[in-house]
Write a structure and sequence with these properties.
Elements lengths: L20 H7 L1 H15 L8 H20 L4 H8 L9 H15 L4 H22 L4 H59 L6 H31 L9 E4 H15 L5 E7 L2 E4 L1 H18 L1 E11 L2 E9 L33 H11 L3 E7 L2 E9 L5
Length: 391
Amino acid sequence: MPGWKSKARHSNIKAGDTMTLPDFIEANLDGLIDDWTEYARAISPGNGRLSEEQLRDSARQLLTAIAADMRGAQNQAQQRAKSHGARPGEDSAFNKVGRGHADDRLSHGFEIDALVAEFRALRASVLHKWQQASRLDAAAFDQMTRFNEAIDQMLAESVAQFARRTERIRDLFAGVLAHDMRSPVAAILNSAHVLFRDEDLSSASTRAAANIQRSADRVKMMIDDLFVFTRTRLGDKLPVEPTQQDFGHICLGAVDEVCAACPDAQVRVQLSGQLAGVCDGARMNQLVVNLVTNAVQHGSGAILVTAAGNGEQITLAVSNGGPPIPASALPTLFDPLTRAPSTEQKKCSPGMGLGLYICRCITDAHNGTIEVESNDGGTVFTVKIPRFLPS
């Protein structure tokens, strides 16, 4: 391994002695810790360097946990499951050591490649000394296999924890950013409204104010989507405020909103049945806007929005022509930050790839369902929600 040399120090075992690998680790713990600490110190980030005591404590925890895991009984089926990536005892002390190591390294500014390198160094140090101090018979190779399994399992646990924590930090940052951007965007929108009320405004200034308002409205939509995305990613169910609403009015208002932003869009609305009910009007407006905007961006020709109230259920369908969505894209279509491939560049800004994910969140919050069908005849998104959401 570049930059690391194993030094045989504090070894209590002579070549030829019979000893299991877990016993060997514990008998040579200080020397193994010395080797590993020297390497870990070299790869520690300069602005978050760990102390000698912290490095030694980390090595001691890892090696002690690995030795204890190797002493546990393991049959052939369990060994095969481990080799296939199974994670036995997710809440075991062994796995908690791996997760704790990842938390510690992340808090000290380590990158994930440095975390992985630490485990490589630990593996190399133990096996190098073990090979020097033991007879490499069948029993020794079996123990080396168990050791490698333990290292791999702990490494996998640490990497998974590191990734989860890193992802959560990103989501928190995005959530704070979306929250803090709301105020300046609201100020821009309010200023545009004030300008429109100025009767002495020139025609050029009126056009400029209209451009400011449209652009700010678009930015506000993206910020709202980002805010919903981060809240749901951080484990919060999308909050809704159910009130008495007319879903037909919601559809018409949402279509007007999209057409104002995309003047070339051809959208037709068909309403039928009983559309009065209880839902979160603002959220449902957002759902319809996102679905229609998606149809404008990725479809072609006229778009049809239908809403039908039937008994205790309201069904919304948004359909458009154009090439079908590839079958390979359908399973992840409602996942965040994903888009189906589009062959046409639309005039309406495409946003951040959160629209359909937000639609799914809104539908879930209303105890409903959302589905998509796409073939050569066109694409149809269908939403079904109860007409009366409990308040």
